Amino acid sequence: MVKAYLRYEPALTFGVIASPESNVCYDPSGRLLLAGALDRLAAWDLKRGLPSVSFAPSSSSSSLAVFCIASSPSAAVSSSIASGHADGSIRLWDAETGSCEATLHGHRSAASALRFAPSGAVLASGSKDCDVILWDVVAQAGLFRLRGHRDQVTDLVFLDSGKKLASCSKDKFIRVWDLETQHCLQIVGGHRSEIWSMDVDSSERFLVSGSADPELRVFRIRQSMEEGEDWSKWDVLKLFGEIPRQSKERVATVRFNRDGSLVACQVAGKTADIYRVLDETEAMRKAKRRMHRKKEKASAKSMIAEGNGTVIDPLPAQDLQNPAVTVTDVFKLLQVLRASKKICSVSFSPSNPPRGCLATLSISLNNNTLETYSVDSEKVSKMYSIEMHGHRSDIRSVSLNSEDNLLMSTSHNAVKIWNPSTGDCLRTIDSGYGLCSAFVGNRFALVGTKSGTLEIIDIASGSLTEVIEAHAGSIRSIVPIPDEDGTVGARGFVTGSADHDVKFWEYQQLKKSDDDSKQLTVTNVRTLKMTEDVLAVSISPQGKHIAVALLDCNVKVYHMDTLKHFLTLFGHKLPVLCMDISYDGALIVTGSADKNLKIWGMDFGDCHKSIFAHSDSVMDVKFVYRTHYMFSVGKDRTVKYWDADKFELLLTLEGHHAEVWCLTISSRGDFIVTGSHDRSIRRWDRTEEQLFIEEEKEKRLEETFEADLDNDNEYRYGQKDDAPDEGSVGVPGRKTKETVTSADAIMEALDTAEEELKRLNQHKLEEQNNGRAAKFQPNVIMQGHSPSDYVLNVVSSIRPNDLEQALLALPFSDALKLMSYLKEWSLVPSKVELVCRVCLVLLQTHHNQLTTTPAARSLLTELKDILYCRVKECKDTIGFNLAAMDHLKELLAMRSDAPFRDAKAKLMEIRQELSKRSDRPDGNEKRKKKRKKASGES
Prior knowledge:
Blueprint lengths: L4 E10 L9 E3 L5 E6 L2 E6 L4 E6 L10 E6 L7 E7 L4 E5 L5 E5 L6 E6 L5 E6 L4 E5 L4 E6 L6 E7 L4 E6 L4 E5 L4 E6 L6 E6 L5 E6 L3 E7 L15 E8 L6 E6 L5 E6 L3 E7 L2 H29 L8 H5 L5 H4 E8 L4 E6 L10 E7 L3 E7 L4 E7 L10 E4 L6 E4 L3 E5 L6 E6 L3 E7 L3 E6 L3 E6 L4 E7 L5 E7 L10 E6 L3 E7 L3 E2 L5 E2 L2 E8 L4 E6 L5 E6 L4 E5 L5 E5 L6 E6 L5 E6 L3 E6 L5 E6 L5 E6 L5 E6 L3 E6 L4 E7 L5 E6 L5 E6 L4 E11 L1 H21 L15 E2 L6 H34 L16 H10 L3 H9 L3 H14 L6 H14 L1 H6 L1 H41 L8 H17 L1 H17 L1
Antiparallel strand pairs: 1-58, 2-3, 3-4, 4-5, 6-7, 7-8, 8-9, 10-11, 11-12, 12-13, 13-59, 14-15, 15-16, 16-17, 18-19, 19-20, 20-21, 22-23, 23-24, 24-25, 26-27, 27-28, 28-29, 30-31, 31-32, 32-33, 34-35, 35-36, 36-37, 38-39, 39-40, 40-43, 41-42, 44-45, 45-46, 46-47, 48-49, 49-50, 50-51, 52-53, ...
Helix pairs in contact: 5-6, 5-7, 6-8, 7-9, 8-9, 8-11, 9-11
Keywords: Coiled coil, Repeat, WD repeat
InterPro entries: SSU_processome_Utp12, TBC1_cilium_biogenesis, WD40/YVTN_repeat-like_dom_sf, WD40_PAC1, WD40_repeat_CS, WD40_repeat_dom_sf, WD40_rpt
Pfam families: Beta-prop_WDR3_1st, Beta-prop_WDR3_2nd, Utp12
């Protein structure tokens, strides 16, 4: 009988506040800050400092890393949040529930820019594949693809109320697209290096773009042509001027606030410049002051020149009365925000700022931190900071206590205690660079640091109680010494260090401190001298043997009681970085930098099997308690599950986005926890689902084959053009496994329906000839539907974004069969839009063959008349409903008791009146006197 194993699946991911690759933005309500957390989105409540909603895809993979986020300016659309991922997919999310509404496939490489139209119904996405795609958010399908850029698209903005789109790229150009005619209106040059970001103010007066140039370029946006101007020479963007920047680093993000009065320029460093945007009146006043100063300087020069006998031409009177407004008159440097670490992204809050502030600005730092600042005319002050829920650097060790209800993780400057079931951070203790850790009961913990110190931590108080200078080199391992009865860590522990020493420690009696609380201390009782750096230490569960991995690639095994040499395990080509001994002391597994796992027998030290386990160094390996199953992690970002008896790979768990450094397993083996260089901690739970080795092998082979197929099919019949057609338009979607599967489903449905129709006709013919026939037995696969309804259900079940690519994959014969059903489907009112989409795609794809096929001409003629009438009926119905809703709105507005009628305006009036009263000093004094008088009388 084939042996079955239980499957492990990803259960929880925590520890990441904000990924450095992704930007941050506010949700449509302005209450939550959205930040990319590897392959998830996290919505943070800034005031409480807690995550509110988590947006997680159905699968976890490094190819799903979030690269860009956008939120809709209109909350009326359900899919009001969009995220762009490393595999080129775009996901639409519901802001309230956190559920994924749709997954859009169109880009061939990572998405790099996202922007919603002002209406929120259209989404524009740019990618590293140099293309811009427009998506219909409501229909959840692509509209068209815009080609023209020669390098990665870095930012997008909508102009003219969503009728035009501006895109910037690393090719140093800005392109303006007309979305109605789907062509490029203007190509703007001038930047001497890659353009990284741009933005437009709410009133669409200015567009500001930033690059590695020492200045920002400001463009005026022209809404319409001037009288008598040539259409071919009409430009949407016209250069207004350049603003000199304070920093020498390249621009990373340019963003306006909600009302367009401020613009933030964040560089690829620790600073962000905040400029004040003056209105036309203030700009003109500033220009007049500038000209007045210029006039005074000119008059002073003329007086000096007259004394020397020379004449200087005076300034024109027209320039003095109506001076030309320059870019420096409009944009004024207000503040410079300086952060403690490198800034990754900035975002202005769309909600009203606190009283006395101009705006609220949130930033993400590359040390896994979010900060929020209030911007004032005098200073920039920090309001909130979110940093407790994650480490500032990569996680080097994780360990569980004996009850599996506390998890400890270490990094370069802090130790954190977590609840492994919920992912909540319970304690944060400042410490050194912790490389290894272990619990002592449930109250104390030990941390070995890179500097060689041993730190004792009191978990209950969250304090560092003692620091012991244990080793002269970094401590690589802390291993509790088990008792003979199997109690772990009751006697003491062993440390291994780079100073060639293995030290044995015992716990001393708990001593009372000044506040009568018991504290833990340890003392060194034995030292084992080695000839090389100690990289790992492991002790058998019975406490009989201790294994020490050295820098010379060998593992030496000693007797615990006498410390006499027992075995030497040699065979690895590179140093052994990790190892573990099975529960019965029969096996020892070693993982090395040579990417191999070796399984040895503890009786004679013979190598049972050498396995090429990972594609990079093996960083940690652990046996599951009371089994010969083991888990290994490596720098190849994977977690692997093995059977050490059969030497078989059982399962590969993917999800980490960087090197996996450490691993710990619960005492019952029901879950494991891994820590990674990507600062995330992941919990993998054992499920009741069974897995079989042969099935997993077949699945891995299929995944490898499909990955190679995807890479080959992209340009099987021709290479990609390095230079696309100037301003060309293409199909928005791309071929994926889902679209191929959908095309196969349509073809199977057409064949099944055709066979069913033949059976029906044959049954009718027999009934006519014989007068009586057997009862017709319909096809069970069709589930009682007619052939037309069965095909319609199959076509309707395809996702809107995959429908176009699925139809493109149909051969002409099947396309002709599908078109024969469109006439019947058009009679269903709810399917008119679907029929029009199918008909349009098939006509564009097979136009030449359809026009030359006699059988298709009559079909096209009938569809032309029917679809025109059906679309006109739907359009009239929608227009009638819109008119009725406008009429109802007017009726409600005319009623005096209409709910919330002018509620916002009245609320603002009340607030202004209250603020005026509070600002009056005499009014405050009178109220105080009245209160004193009333209290005295009482």
